[in-house]
């Protein structure tokens, strides 16, 4: 499941190092080809909202295999696309189908017992984070030596192998629940009711959204900061900072084990504190060493709180785990999208200091919500 999450989510990020190659091959401008990552993220948001809830009424194994077939088809269209319009449409489809990862996480939580759910979710999340980390590196290498289309051919092959493995290994009958099934529209309409039934879910979504806000703000402006007069470094160096995200891969299973042993609340507190300290480090420690220390701290903190929150919310209502995941992830995705836009304006108006201090403030809000709001499950 961890490997499956990594391979599925990697498809969202293949395009980022390939944009210049795609623009040259398709004969279009960098401005137009720059819409490809946006189209992929829009597709992912649609998949979160429209497909992930289906795990509560359809056998998750069947749903994952159907999405795998759809993802292979979308990747194949990307590899063969003759025009940029086709690339953009296929990018949306890739984003929608890549939500396989968000079907697998509640699937894993459903298979785990109460004592090990945090550890299981942490292991699966480590695979997802590994996919995010390695996708850009792999596609950049393949694109440089074999062309950008080859990266999507590789995606088809990996997804096909993944589908064969999942068809053989995943158990049947997980998801769908007992009793009459609601209609698809009723299922989507019930998302609000799920949130109202579980104020703990609302709290978890809002607290983690503050972390995702800070996370997105940093990565949206790092290249601008490094290219400025203080450093004069290129985008390639900014990309190397992504390697530091390896700490998140290591943090996820650790967070799960700690949540199982000491409770999710304590782990979330530590995670929030680490994020705040990471952004304070950016303001207090000058130069590249300060950036490196800060990235390690805040990425570790984000993953600690993420896995602990997921271990907590997946215990709330077993029959609604997919919808719970939809509410949680859609809240995070929305916060990240807004943050990316706000961060650019903040950085332009007040520079790196304004950006980092605003992130400290948002993290402080999250910490206050976590410590002071005590909703009943």
TrEMBL record:
Residues 1-377 form the Major facilitator superfamily (MFS) profile domain. The keyword Transmembrane helix applies. The keyword Transmembrane applies. GO terms for molecular function: transmembrane transporter activity. Keywords: Membrane, Transmembrane, Transmembrane helix. CDD domains: MFS_NepI_like (cd17324). The chain crosses the membrane at residues 32-51, 120-138, 150-171, 237-255, 262-282, 288-307, 327-346, 352-373. InterPro entries: MFS, MFS_dom, MFS_trans_sf. This is MFS transporter.
């Amino acid at each position: 499941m961890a490997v499956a999450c990594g391979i599925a989510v990697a498809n969202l990020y293949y395009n980022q190092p390939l944009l210049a190659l795609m623009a040259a091959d398709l004969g279009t401008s960098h401005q137009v080809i720059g819409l490809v990552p946006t189209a992929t993220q829009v597709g992912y948001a649609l998949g979160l909202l429209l497909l992930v809830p289906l795990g509560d009424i359809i056998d998750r194994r069947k749903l994952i295999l159907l999405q795998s077939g759809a993802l292979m088809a979308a990747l194949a269209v990307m590899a063969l696309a003759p025009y940029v319009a086709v690339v953009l449409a296929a990018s949306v489809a890739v984003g929608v189908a890549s939500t396989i990862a968000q079907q697998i996480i509640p699937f894993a939580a459903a298979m785990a017992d109460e004592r090990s759910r945090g550890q299981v979710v942490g292991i699966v999340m480590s695979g997802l984070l590994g996919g995010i980390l390695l996708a850009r590196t792999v596609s950049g290498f393949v694109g440089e030596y074999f062309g950008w289309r080859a990266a999507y051919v590789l995606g088809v092959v990996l997804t096909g192998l993944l589908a064969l493995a999942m068809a053989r290994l995943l158990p049947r009958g997980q998801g769908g629940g007992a009793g009459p099934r609601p209609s698809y529209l009723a299922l989507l309409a019930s998302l609000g009711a799920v949130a109202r039934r579980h104020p703990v879910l609302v709290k978890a979504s809002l607290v983690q959204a503050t972390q995702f806000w800070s996370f997105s703000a940093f990565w949206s402006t790092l290249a601008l900061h490094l290219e400025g007069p203080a450093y004069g470094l290129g985008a390639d160096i900014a990309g190397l900072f992504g390697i530091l995200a390896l700490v998140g891969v290591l943090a996820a299973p650790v967070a799960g084990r700690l949540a199982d042993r000491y409770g999710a609340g304590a782990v979330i507190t530590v995670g929030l504190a680490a994020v705040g300290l990471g952004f304070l480090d950016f303001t207090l420690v000058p130069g590249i060493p300060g950036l490196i220390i800060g990235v390690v701290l805040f990425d570790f903190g984000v993953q600690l709180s993420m896995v602990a929150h997921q271990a907590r919310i997946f215990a709330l209502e077993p029959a609604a785990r997919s919808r719970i995941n939809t509410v949680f992830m859609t809240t995070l995705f929305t916060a990240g999208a807004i943050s990316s836009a706000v961060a650019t304006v903040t950085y332009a108006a007040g520079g790196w200091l304004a950006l980092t201090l605003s992130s400290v403030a948002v993290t402080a809000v999250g910490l206050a919500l976590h410590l002071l709001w005590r909703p009943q499950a």
